[in-house]
Amino acid sequence: MNPMANIAVRAARAAGDLIARNIDRLDRLRVEAKGLNDYVSDVDRMAEQEIITVIRKAYPDHQFLGEESGSQGDHDHVWIIDPLDGTTNFLHGFPHFAVSIALQVKGRLEVGVIYDPVRQELFAASRGAGATLDGRRLRMPPRRSIDGRLIGTGFPFRHPRHMPAYMDMFQSVCMRAGDLRRAGSAALDLAYVASGRLDGYWEIGLNAWDLAAGALLIREAGGMVGDFEGSENYLKNGNMVAGSPKLFHDLLKEIQPHCTPAMRG
Ligand code: IPD
Ligand code: CA
Ligand code: CA
Asked: What pTM was computed for the model?
């Protein structure tokens, strides 16, 4: 394995163990609101520190972009970290959340790791070397369309201005898909797309730390990811569509007619 992927795995497991140790003491955690429906707990912060400590020991000069501590350093190697994706689930004891770590080198995603501390499942990818779940190679099943398929999504619960357009997208997809899931952790949901547990995914207004590792996992498992124009800008604008190549284009076709100018901003 790419030595940088090894470090990402070590960091993700360390943060995941910390999260797991806190599952039984949710009532004792300090929780603050950062914005509309956006919470942070001691566990999010401690998990991010744990990740940065592990990576910094191996790569003291690298740059970090962490959800809780922002951007630190200036380097062409940037670690993009969501220490706990699915905080709302975690705080409710709803067992679907994950640690997400990606490494971008000169603007290109090189490593992506997503770790589920509840099921102790590790999803990992390195550019050009494929994606794995607990060491087993992932290959997304080729789906021709969204008809009858299981599609994941995230609601724009922090961006109410997008709700009307989102509901139109939802209706269009729901009329054709087999069923839809809103499980509450974009990173883990994208890992589920890479592993074929979901056939596709879309969400409006994610952050780079929610989707960077998942995007690489999907690409390395043979799938496609793009923004609502089908382009590579999803890390910047946070709009994401994902699936195996034919399904990706079909899903995009249902979403595009409902896009608004506000989604491009
Ligand atoms: C959130 C989760 C959620 C998604 C949001 C994300 P957080 O991340 O991934 O499923 O719908 O867009 O911001 O705040 O729990 O790390
Ligand atoms: Ca997140
Ligand atoms: Ca988070």
From this structure: 0.97
